[in-house]
Amino acid sequence: MSSGVRSPGRAEIQGRTLRQDTWWLQPLVTFVVLLAFVVYATWRAFAGEHYYASPYLSPFYSPCMGAQCVEGSADFGRPFDWFPWSPALIILVIPLGFRMTCYYYRKAYYRAFWLSPPACAVAEPHGRYTGERRFPLILQNLHRWFLIVSALVALVLSYDVVLAFRDADHEWGHMGLGTLVLLVNVLLIWGYTLSCHSCRHLIGGRLRHFSKHPVRYRAWTLVSRLNGHHAKFAWLSLFSVALADLYVYLLATGAITDPRFF
After folding, report:
1. CA-based angle 39:42:44, to the nearest 5?
2. Which of 23, 29, 147, 231 could make a disulfide contact with 119, Cβ separation 3.0–4.6 Å?
3. Long-range contacts: 104-109, Cβ < 8 Å, 24+?
4. What is the pLDDT of residues 216-251, one digit of tens each?
5. Which sequence ranges are marked TM in the entry (predicted)?
6. 8 A C-beta contact, residue 180 and residue 207
7. Maximum separation of any 2 CA atoms in the chain, in Å
């Protein structure tokens, strides 16, 4: 028996919706933007080149730990020196898993790609809905674990920003446009990470009396404020990480030069 929106007990409406506005525009834009990011990220991840322009390392390849890491890019060594393909494929599974299991992104791509449902008050085309209780959607429950390892990656990206205060010869005390690009990117990534719903729960969840945990309560309050902007951070950090990678790519290919401020 059908358990979808057309199941018995639902109001019988012949059309998909009674809405007269352009309800399809938002899921369409979401579909186009996410698809464009997936295509770009896939190309850059498998390219395995033009990801390091001293002192800048693309966030798609950080930390670089594979056998193919170019000189100067492996700040943490090459523990995966047996891995013969692009080093981005080693690390990208972490931020990708974090975003794919994110509560906000689930809503975005469920609606845009699976039309489940495509918009509020619009019937979905699926006859059944089993939720996230079965494979593969049950893997969405790994989100909080992806949060923890993604925070470690964000720390590495923060370290990359520190290293970006050098020149091409690794002399300290210099700053270029690339430094600002990586700095803005890591700030947005931290905003997205800390505003995560699971992060909010880890900090303040399972407490019966906030008065007995003033430090955690204060942290929970701050994260709760960020949580209200989680969707904004999700989109901005998606754009910033792609733009940061593109900037390093253009530098590495010689298409542009990095303006140095001091």
Report:
1. 110
2. 23
3. 104/230, 104/231, 104/234, 105/234, 106/140, 108/30, 108/34, 108/234, 109/30, 109/34
4. 889 999 999 999 999 999 999 999 999 999 999 999
5. 23-43, 85-105, 145-166, 172-192, 233-252
6. no
7. 71
